[in-house]
């Protein structure tokens, strides 16, 4: 890798499912946090796994599922977070994104925000 690689940014979309352990227990689709407060991490993971399976099998498009199911406000953009560099995202999220090739989808990634699947887009 060249020295300039550290300056490189990646681009990614994600689907976030919040749960009881999430730092902020509210989202655009659950402003009161009622659903989030009653969602266990295990149930968030199994929801996300099911979405990931639908994407992998071609049954659904990542951006469509992100728009409907993601607890992140990026849902309005099909989960697109835009470009970011190192140090801008929570560490586990950053590491998972940089480890993916463009077009690849991560396994479940845990952060303080909740559980994610990440699609590297650039």
Automatic annotation (TrEMBL):
Sum up the protein's function in the record's words.
Answer: Prolyl cis/trans isomerase with specificity for phospho-Ser-Pro bonds.
Checking PROSITE patterns in the record gives: PPIC_PPIASE_1, PPIC_PPIASE_2
Task: Write down the chemical reaction(s) this protein catalyses.
Answer: [protein]-peptidylproline (omega=180) = [protein]-peptidylproline (omega=0)
One GO term of the cellular component aspect? nucleus
Q: Where is the composition biased (Polar residues)?
A: 1-11
Name-wise, this protein is Peptidyl-prolyl cis-trans isomerase
* UniProt xrefs under Pfam families: Rotamase
Report the source organism. Answer: Juglans regia (English walnut)
Family membership: Belongs to the PpiC/parvulin rotamase family.
Q: Which UniProt keywords apply?
A: Isomerase, Rotamase
Q: Which domain of life is it from?
A: Eukaryota
Report biased composition (Basic residues) as residue ranges.
16-26
Might you give the EC number(s) for this enzyme?
Answer: 5.2.1.8
Q: Which residues form a coiled coil?
A: none
Q: EC class of this enzyme? A: isomerase
Q: Identify the stretch(es) annotated as Disordered.
A: 1-32
State a single Gene Ontology molecular function: peptidyl-prolyl cis-trans isomerase activity
């Amino acid at each position: 890798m060249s020295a300039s690689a550290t300056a490189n940014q990646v681009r990614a979309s994600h689907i976030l499912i919040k749960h009881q352990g999430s730092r902020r227990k509210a989202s655009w689709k659950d402003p009161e946090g009622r659903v989030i407060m009653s969602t266990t991490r295990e149930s968030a993971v199994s929801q996300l796994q099911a979405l990931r399976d639908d994407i992998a099998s071609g049954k659904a498009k990542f951006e469509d599922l992100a728009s409907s199911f993601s607890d992140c406000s990026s849902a309005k953009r099909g989960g697109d977070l835009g470009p970011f560099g190192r140090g801008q995202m929570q560490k586990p999220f950053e590491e998972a994104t940089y480890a993916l090739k463009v077009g690849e989808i991560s396994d479940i990634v845990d952060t303080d925000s909740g559980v994610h699947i990440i699609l590297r887009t650039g």
